[in-house]
Design a protein that fits this description.
It holds the Pfam family DUF6247. By secondary structure, this protein is mainly alpha-helical. It has two domains: about 5-80, no CATH class; about 80-123, no CATH class. Helix content is about 70%, strand content about 0%. It has helices at about 15-25, 25-35, 35-55, 60-80, 80-95, 105-115. Helix 1 runs antiparallel to helix 4 (about 60-80). The radius of gyration is 17 Å and the shape is globular.
Length: about 120
């Protein structure tokens, strides 16, 4: 039996995916909320993290991995992921042209975003 057999067959709206992620942060649900093209990457990362957790008796890496993929699923459902990539490309172009790029330190931005989402970051 594969994880595919447990997934919802119906197409969900971005709002439904976000609500699902808020209610259920299990590996199975996170995987089901990812676009199909990302599920193989999730599977690979999850298996590696679980193997490491088994060896080291430490679930920290598994929890960090699930937090990462939870954010990815949410950002991909809402279109934030593409917006971040586009913004990054614009900033990279500015840097390559030698232009000044105003902004805030990355750690500050990440801490603010994590606070808004109710997630703790270990930076």
């Amino acid at each position: 039996m594969t994880a595919e057999s447990h997934e919802l067959i119906s197409i969900r709206t971005p709002e439904q995916i976000v609500e699902s992620l808020k209610a259920d942060r299990s590996p199975r649900n996170i995987r089901a909320c990812l676009p199909p093209a990302d599920r193989g990457f999730f599977d690979r990362d999850y298996r590696r993290a679980m193997a490491k957790a088994t060896e080291e008796l430490d679930l920290g890496p598994v929890n960090a991995l699930l937090a990462h993929w939870w954010h990815m699923a949410r950002m991909k459902a809402t279109g934030e992921y593409e917006a971040v990539l586009e913004q990054g490309a614009r900033v990279q172009d500015q840097i390559e042209r030698g232009e000044y790029v105003p902004g805030r330190p990355l750690q500050e931005v990440l801490a603010e975003r994590a606070s808004q989402l109710g997630v703790e970051l270990n930076l």
